[in-house]
């Protein structure tokens, strides 16, 4: 796909990815919260665990920024995302950022799930 693409859908896709990452971190926090009672005596570990909350908040705010930015982009503004998309090594993510429907598999070439 080496052609100009509307910028707004690209930014919407990025905002959606950021939002989804924030929700995933929120779920991780909920899952890990009982373990925090066991590690509460270790300040470094508690600080690191609190970073999950900060990461979630930052991702959410960047997502909101992207959505708000879309409101001020001139209608019809287009870019060619081909070169930037070549740098994305996760195939499914690249498809979503390209605005394409999922290619069918949750784990396409380049994607790794080690659990």
Map the helices and strands.
Elements: E1 5-6, H1 7-39, H2 43-70, E2 78-79, H3 82-86, H4 91-98
Report on this model:
With 115 residues, the protein is mainly alpha-helical. It folds into two domains: 5-78; 81-115, no CATH class. The protein is 64% helix and 3% strand. The chain contains four helices and two strands. The protein has helices at 7-39, 43-70, 82-86, 91-98; strands spanning 5-6, 78-79. The chain has a two-stranded antiparallel ribbon with strand order 1-2. Helix 1 crosses helix 4. The longest helix has 33 residues, at 7-39. It is elongated, with a radius of gyration of 18 Å. The two termini are 33 Å apart. The model has no long low-confidence stretch (mean pLDDT 83).
Q: Given the structure, what is the number of helices?
A: 4
For the largest sheet, list the strands in their spatial order.
1-2
Low-confidence stretches at least 5 residues in length (pLDDT < 50)? none
Shape: elongated
Order of helices and strands: EHHEHH
Mean pLDDT: 83
Beta-strand segment tally: 2
Instruction: Describe the largest sheet.
Output: 2 strands, antiparallel
* Class inferred from helices and paired strands: mainly alpha
Report, as a whole number of angstroms, the end-to-end distance. 33 Å
- Whole-number total of structural domains: 2
Radius of gyration: 18 Å
Short description:
The chain is mainly α and 115 residues long. It has helices at residues 7-39, 43-70, 82-86, 91-98, and strands spanning 5-6, 78-79.
Attribute tags:
mainly alpha; 115 residues; single chain; 2 domains
